[in-house]
Write a structure and sequence with these properties.
Layout: E1 5-8, H1 12-22, E2 26-30, H2 36-50, E3 57-61, H3 67-78, E4 82-86, H4 95-108, E5 111-115, H5 118-122, E6 127-130, H6 142-149, H7 156-161, E7 168-171, H8 182-186, H9 195-198, H10 205-224
Parallel strand pairs: 1-2, 3-4, 3-6, 4-5, 6-7
Helix pairs in contact: 2-3, 2-10, 3-4
The structure holds norvaline.
Length: 226
Amino acid sequence: MFDGIEYRGFSQATVEALATHSGVPVWNGLTDQWHPTQVLADVLTMEEEFGALEGLVLAYVGDGRNNVANSLMVGCAKLGMGCRIVAPESLHPEPELAAAVREIAAATGGSLLVTSSIEEGVAGAHALYADVWASMGEESLIAERIKLLKPYKITRRMMELTGRRDTIFLHCLPSFHNLDTEVAKQYPDIQEVEDAVFEGPQSRVFDQAENRLHTIKAVMVATAGR
Ligand code: NVA
């Protein structure tokens, strides 16, 4: 009944089964492992801000094993960008994925740095990127993640640590940047980013969100159009 399906669900195996059996284009709109369409909007936002993508450095700060971190690493490597994953050691990316990403980066001039050091990870970054600390389906891990990731909250001070005045802030949304939601009221330390950064002059989160529209349309034209 459908000419194409964008699947936003949970298990990566499900989207792969759908792609195998549906007989129509299937787009991965987010799984527990990957979030590829998000990255297209992210890099478009960086291109709009800085021009050519090659050589730009994006530092993702937070849960380095989640879907967004995984896809950012791959996307940056393919585009010749520098990607930093800044996370406590227990949330560093899978070593096999990091190795595969480094192989891609070697061919494009990109790079990958995985580090627990905030100073090292954000130095010189054109963009600092945050995501929620507990992804969909990980609600039971919230307290543990807050403990692990509290030092990695993106603050105005961390933005200054890049050493660049033009660093932008990106976020895939939704975000805990204030205490307006029930969950945030229950866990006041759940904020992965200071409201002053999220709402501040260096934030590009709403341009980034708008770019989801344009990039998704481009993906559909490129893969299903004639
Ligand atoms: N890592 C987040 C991304 C939300 C767009 C999640 O999976 O919930």
